[in-house]
Write a structure and sequence with these properties.
binds 2-phosphoglycolic acid, globular, 10 strands, three-stranded antiparallel sheet, single chain, alpha/beta, 18% strand
């Protein structure tokens, strides 16, 4: 795993944006795996700036988001549909028909997951996967547990994740208790992975990620089996502050 140690959040955002921009410049039809949460927001802002400056063109890219709450309507301001539109998609020239996000309102969750798997395969797989990391080491909504799922699936959120994400909702009770998420196998099939981590709250997860053990109780530890992962983190997440 390559580690880019940064002096703060802005540097993480700039380095991540630069790598994503280079990917799109090299391959204008790149398939991008998108993440939500607080961490990638700065990267998205910098991508919008590059688009507005005329140095980046998203017209041929295809995107697949990692996950979506279930059940939750796309119009809900806490949905990842809403997040992606507000933080990135409505500001750039990505084609709506090339944007894929799991449907948090699907009646048949299993069929939705299967269709999403098929769509990723039909696109030729993910070229660059952006990831955040949960305080509990989750990636996407692949939560720690006795076993993990390889494929796109419906999952229950852990208490740790419900607590961490309650800050976005009016009350903790409003946090959906389930999500649809790509699986660990989907993530590991990406050609390149960027893992972003900022702040002290992530230090325990990053420390565990950087020792030699692989365990389903820290889903991110599976990333150690991937040949092309770049961890972009600040000193606080690295445990130095
Ligand atoms: P965060 O979430 O970026 O809001 O910290 C990361 C995650 O839970 O994957």
């Amino acid at each position: 795993m390559e580690i880019l140690l940064c002096n703060g959040y802005d540097e993480i955002s700039e380095k991540a944006a630069a790598i994503l921009a280079d990917t799109v410049k090299e391959n204008p039809a790149a398939v991008l795996g998108m993440a939500t949460g607080s961490t990638p927001e700065g990267m998205y802002k910098r991508l919008i700036e590059r688009y507005e400056a005329g140095t980046l063109d998203f017209s041929a890219v295809e995107t697949f988001n990692l996950d979506e709450y279930y059940p939750l309507a796309a119009e809900n301001e806490q949905s990842y549909h809403y997040y992606m539109n507000e933080k990135l998609f409505k500001h750039i020239n990505v084609k709506p028909e090339r944007i894929h996000i799991l449907n948090g309102e699907a009646k048949d969750a299993d069929a939705e997951c299967k269709a999403y798997s098929n769509a990723i395969a039909a696109a030729g797989g993910i070229d660059l996967q952006i990831l955040g990391i949960g305080e509990n080491g989750h990636i996407g909504f692949n939560e720690p547990g006795e076993y993990l799922h390889a494929d796109v699936h419906k999952t229950a959120l852990t208490e740790s994740t419900v607590n961490a994400n309650a800050r976005f909702f009016a009350t903790r009770d409003e946090v959906p208790r389930y999500a649809l998420t790509v699986g660990i196998g989907d993530i590991l099939r990406a050609k390149k992975i960027l893992l972003l981590a900022s702040g002290k709250a992530k230090a325990n997860a990053i420390r565990a990620l950087l020792d030699d053990r692989i365990t389903t109780s820290l889903p991110a530890s599976l990333l150690k089996t991937h040949p092309n992962v770049v961890l972009i983190c600040d000193r606080a997440a690295f445990g130095e502050e």
